[in-house]
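Quick start: what a row looks like.
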Amino acid sequence: MAKDFCVYLDAGHGGLDASGFYVTAPSKMYFHDEQWTFHNGGFFYEGVFNRHITNLVASKLKNLGIPYVIVSHEYLDLKLSYRAETANWYHRNYKKGIFISNHANASGNHQARGFEVYTTPGTTKSDKFADLLWEQVNSLLGDRIRMREDRLDGDHDKEARFYVLRKTVMPAILVEHLFFDNFEDAKLLMDDFVVEMFAEAQVRSILEFMETL
């Protein structure tokens, strides 16, 4: 099955260029206490985390012989249309697959905490994949993090009309790994074990989803 299947990975927003400049919107960073070191002193850069988790997942997929394509750039904040269209082109011309967009969240009052996974409104194959991921994360990290969900439609995922979810033609999810503007969640996102388990959960859910095809 792996040879006929591909995982399309998207690290949200932009990262650090060769000079160390963070090439994405100011809303995608947050300054915490200078006494704690994140990506740049007290600054937490969401796009840097997004690339870290995406590269970990890619490495695990490579070890398992599961094809993948990273549709985001090493550091540029590519247009959402390019990311979605690239995944769609490879889905149609290379291998059928699934789309995962990796993010960390932020809130207006910087108090929110927890893990969320999003699909588009309605019931699609994306909901099954999202549910598998939510359950894997809960199994691996549920004792250390808050698990956020919306059970109104009977599953764990939340629903939103995010561009990359609406415009991709394969099952697609957007993952919000905790809240980077909350100090306690931000510290968890710098914990090697926690991030490793987030990546492991994605790979396990991918393997489970492949068995349903």
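That is the whole record. The helical segments are 46-64, 80-93, 125-141, 163-167, 183-189, 192-211. The chain has six helices and eight strands.
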